[in-house]
Specification:
Blueprint lengths: L13 H13 L2 H8 L3 H15 L4 E4 L2 E4 L1 H24 L6 E8 H6 L1 H11 L3 E8 L1 H9 L5 E5 L7 E16 L9 E2 L10 E3 L4 H12 L8 E3 L2 H7 L6 E4 L4 H6 L2 E6 L5 E9 L6 H15 L8
Parallel strand pairs: 3-4, 3-5, 7-11, 8-9
Antiparallel strand pairs: 1-2, 5-12, 6-10, 6-11, 6-12
Helix pairs in contact: 1-2, 1-3, 1-4, 2-3, 4-11
């Protein structure tokens, strides 16, 4: 004779809650099983037990993985907090305070224009953790993530993310930027073919923005050769005062556009939009500060409101 379903008044099992949270974070039962070092069958049984106790489905299963149902979305924030409280209790019982450094690496665009807001929000929710950020070009960020030298990286562009878990945290678009007073100032759009008629100023080789823009233009038959290469966004923007154009993230010129010192044009015949993603090693040995930040990022993505880029 089978056991009757447990009543909702009974305390929820932390083991079952942990698998549910892991499934939402990973977007699949298999990902949850790997994160929890379980078989897929064992992970499925724990989630089913939690659903039976609560009397409602928590995950929608589909060909592309799982996502939380309305009930799952309501449970997820409290489940995260419960797991964090249990982890903090274990630390306190052992005479340790929950703290630590979150080691991060970010591309220059992500590090300068996306990550500061994310870190401010994370610190409000988790003041016990201290983020430490290296700002580098995208290929170097991915090297550090794959070598386990940082827990989480932030990159943008068309890089190969094989063997990495990723979640989109923002979006941007690469635009053509010129100084105020340039012949293109006052225009809102330009074609890719027109770019070859003007001097091109770029970031250094390895820049994520440069790589994405040049590769997509090349596929459209436009091959740009820089007349000047500079290692910093600030240097590129200053160089525009002597003429020419650059290809740059719209996030990186927002302040100059408001001030009127630069103008930006969209390229009409090529899509230069891109995701800015957080990445980490799939099945990596992540420490608790990194896991906490990743869960926070995933929750922010899953529960983004209307109008969000996620």
């Amino acid at each position: 004779m089978s056991n009757p379903p447990r009543q909702p008044s009974e305390p929820l099992s932390s083991r079952e809650i942990a698998v549910f949270v892991a499934a939402v974070d990973a977007g699949s039962i298999q990902g949850a099983a790997e994160a929890m070092h379980l078989t897929q069958s064992a992970a499925t049984k724990r989630i089913q037990a939690l659903e039976r106790q609560l009397g409602t489905p928590l995950l929608e299963r589909g060909r592309n993985g799982v996502r939380p149902t309305p009930a799952g979305r309501r449970l997820y924030p409290d489940a995260q907090r419960a797991l964090a409280a249990l982890a903090a209790g274990a630390e306190a019982a052992a005479g340790r305070s929950p703290s630590g450094t979150v080691k991060l690496a970010a591309s220059r665009t992500a590090g300068g224009f996306v990550l500061p807001e994310l870190l401010a929000g994370f610190r409000r929710d988790h003041p016990e953790y201290r983020p430490q950020v290296d700002v580098l070009n995208s290929p170097r960020v991915l090297e550090l993530v794959r070598a386990d030298e940082v827990g989480i990286g932030f990159v943008e562009g068309d890089d190969n993310l094989d063997e990495l878990e990723s979640t989109t945290v923002s979006r941007d678009e690469i635009v053509v930027a010129v100084a105020s007073g340039h012949a293109w100032d006052g225009r809102e759009e330009i074609t890719a073919a027109e770019l070859g008629r003007e001097r091109y100023i770029s970031r250094e080789p390895g820049s994520g923005s440069r790589s994405v823009a040049e590769n997509r233009l090349r596929r459209a038959g436009v091959d740009l050769v820089p007349s000047l290469e500079l290692a910093s966004l600030a240097g590129v923007k200053r160089a525009l005062s002597d003429g020419g154009f650059t290809l740059i993230s719209d996030l990186a010129v927002a302040a100059e556009l408001r001030a009127g010192s630069l103008a930006a044009l969209r390229i009409t015949d090529i899509d230069l939009g891109r995701d800015i993603s957080a990445v980490r090693r799939r099945n990596g040995n992540h420490d608790e500060p990194s896991r906490s930040f990743w869960r926070w990022l995933r929750r922010r993505t899953i529960f983004a409101g209307p109008g969000s880029p996620y």
